[in-house]
Specification:
The structure is a single chain. By secondary structure, the chain is mainly α. It folds into 2 domains: 2-63; 67-150, no CATH class. It is 75% helix and 3% strand. The protein is built from 5 helices and 2 strands, in the order H-H-H-H-E-E-H. The chain has a two-stranded antiparallel ribbon with strand order 1-2. The protein starts with a helix and ends with a helix.
Length: 151
């Protein structure tokens, strides 16, 4: 494109001194050449900016995953979130059952305690009724013993 600009500039420069003595047609042609030169300069500036933008996008593109890979990664994350929500709900239900069994929300002589007792067999006898922190301590001790025995 700069080659065309140079040729048009040379033509204009050739005709410019002659335009004072020339017809109106020459003056129109020179004005058209000037307009074309302005348009070419704008086009060159736009092209240079487009090339800079393309270079920036190319540079960024190397660091960013493709949209397909990004979509697949998002799908995996969403599936993991769903799995964790399901697991969380299951654990919440287990915790609610345990709290009920532990007896946190009931008085010592509630209907539940007359129907449910949790005891631990320690040969030759059963332990006392396990409630609240006593139940926690017994479970923790049993889990610790199982872990120690498994090694």
């Amino acid at each position: 494109m700069s080659e065309h600009v140079a040729r048009l500039t040379a033509i204009r420069d050739f005709w410019l001194p002659l335009s004072k003595d020339s017809s109106e047609d020459v003056q129109v042609i020179l004005a058209d050449i000037d307009a074309v030169l302005v348009d070419l300069e704008r086009a060159q500036a736009a092209l240079a900016e487009a090339k800079r933008d393309a270079d920036r996008h190319r540079w960024l593109g190397h660091d960013l995953p493709s949209l397909d890979r990004l979509d697949a990664a998002i799908e995996r994350v969403l599936a993991e979130v769903d799995r964790l929500r399901t697991e969380n709900e299951r654990l919440r239900e287990d915790a609610e059952r345990y709290r009920w069994l532990r007896g946190d929300s009931c008085a010592d002589h509630s209907v539940r305690w007359t129907q449910w007792e949790v005891r631990c067999w320690r040969a030759p006898i059963w332990s006392h009724d396990l409630r609240r922190t006593n139940l926690d301590e017994e479970i923790d001790a049993a889990l610790c013993k199982e872990n120690t025995d498994a090694r």
